Amino acid sequence: xxxxxxxxxxxxxxxxxxxxxxxxxxxxxxxxxxxxxxxxxxxxxxxxxxxxxxxxxxxxxxxxxxxxxxxxxxxxxxxxxxxxxxxxxxxxxxxxxxxxxxxxxxxxxxxxxxxxxxxxxxxxxxxxxxxxxxxxxxxxxxxxxxxxxxxxxxxxxxxxxxxxxxxxxxxxxxxxxxxxxxxxxxxxxxxxxxxxxxxx
Length: 200
Description:
Elements: E1 6-7, E2 10-11, H1 12-27, H2 34-41, H3 45-52, H4 55-61, H5 64-71, H6 80-97, H7 99-111, H8 116-139, H9 148-160, H10 179-194
Antiparallel strand pairs: 1-2
């Protein structure tokens, strides 16, 4: 198969990335081999080497969409509370759309893996957006919380974990929340924690 070939109508790079995303989420980076990625994707080892040069480059390529998704968002900060609500809603939506990717991000952050430092390029715009929104809200007195750094960390931690984990928190009600429902509860939780009037 030539580099320009498509497989079953899908771009080969996309197929490889989708396979790697699933395996990294389920097995972790260290527990996943290039051969496993190839088997999952149904491609040869040569194609992974050609398109990415190795497993680590496949890993970093997965986070490019996240960087672009949030980098294109802009907030004028005229109404920081409304901006924060929008930020949370968009992130929760993305969390549901990219379950595997956010799962990988959680794993890497919790393990403080050697890849986290290089991942900064992908997640930095997201953290900076949130920091700017929270800072503007504090400056206007709309957010009543004593520490900007803790506010950023607590808020981002809540958003990233906005999807229930069936292993850590088995629920009798197996119905999965919709993204809108999860976003609404996340907004309520974050707003209460930051001392924001929930009616705003």
